[in-house]
Write a structure and sequence with these properties.
Radius of gyration: 39 Å
Oligomer: single chain
Largest sheet: 5 strands, antiparallel
Helix content: 40-55%
CATH architecture of the domain at 82-189 and 200-224: 2-Layer Sandwich
Number of strands: 8
Order of helices and strands: HHHHEEEHEEHEEE
Distance between the termini: 132 Å
CATH superfamily of the domain at 82-189 and 200-224: Ribosomal protein S6/Translation elongation factor EF1B
CATH topology of the domain at 82-189 and 200-224: Alpha-Beta Plaits
Length: 276
């Protein structure tokens, strides 16, 4: 019987020549399934992100152009900002508000009998927190004086809404009037957001018309410099062996143009040595 010689080396080489390509093909298929397929399936999402990035880029370029325009007209922007701050205050400024109402009432010939205030609930807006200052005012005078008061209040710089009013006749046929006002102020948010667009245009006709109308309002400039300090009174005498008490604080009186006194008052603390 003739013996058959099998070349095992040749068989191994042949198997290797087929096996390596098959393994490589399997690896390529696995990589394509694990890497390429998710990429292809997520293509709509990537395209949407690309469009959003392009839109943001155009928005930022537009914002940059508007900011450069505002910088070029900085003086006009500052003037407009001052006008808007006079109408809608960014702080409570309660003494200024009460003094303004008192001045307007007395300029109309009315007598001020009472003046009080309270804060309303704040409302969050996109620009900041809007809060009302509620004012209750009691005045006495004639009908013509009341009309003059309302007209002057309408032309006053700071925004004041008349919520309610009641009146009765006194024995001498004068009107005793009780008024309720609300004056809003906004606590502006100062957090800068890069991708927020600039939603106004200082050259817009409506904006220019609004600024022109605000310039016609009468702004009451009231500051601490308008107060006059009265010299401090001497210390209150005390009995022997007792520590001296501080004398009561004097009061600064706001002077109106012409020398008339307004009821708005600010305590002035006398310069005395502190208690031990």
């Amino acid at each position: 019987m003739k013996k058959i010689n099998i070349d095992t080396l040749a068989i191994k080489q042949m198997v290797a020549n087929f096996l390596v390509p098959l393994i490589s093909l399997g690896l390529v298929t696995a990589i394509g399934f694990l890497v390429l397929y998710p990429t292809i399936s997520n293509r709509p999402m990537y395209e949407e992100k690309l469009e959003a990035s392009r839109a943001l880029d155009e928005q930022l370029l537009t914002k940059l152009e508007k900011l450069n325009y505002l910088v070029d007209y900085k003086s006009a922007v500052d003037e407009n900002n001052s006008l808007l701050s006079d109408v809608l205050a960014q702080k409570p400024l309660v003494p200024e508000l009460l003094t303004q109402l008192d001045i307007i009432a007395k300029e109309a010939g009315l007598g001020v009998e009472k003046l009080s205030y309270s804060f309303g609930a704040g409302k969050d807006t996109a620009e900041g927190t809007l809060t009302d200052i509620n004012v209750n005012m009691g005045i006495i005078g004639t009908y013509d004086q009341l009309v003059a008061f309302f007209r002057a209040l309408e032309k006053a710089g700071r925004l004041v809404n008349v919520d309610n009013y009641r009146y009765t006749l006194t024995e001498d046929n004068a009107l005793s009037i009780n008024l309720t006002f609300s004056s809003p102020y906004v606590d502006v948010k100062t957090d800068a957001v890069t991708d927020d667009p600039i939603a106004f245009d200082i050259s817009d006709t409506k904006f220019v018309s609004l600024m022109s109308s605000l310039k016609e309002f009468k702004v009451y400039r009231i500051s601490v410099d308008d107060y006059i300090e009265v010299p401090a009174t001497p210390e209150i005498p005390t009995q022997q062996g007792e520590q001296p008490l501080d004398a009561p604080a004097e009061v600064g009186v706001l002077q109106q143009p012409g020398g008339a006194e307004a009821p708005a008052q600010v305590p002035v603390v006398p310069t005395e040595e502190p208690l031990n």
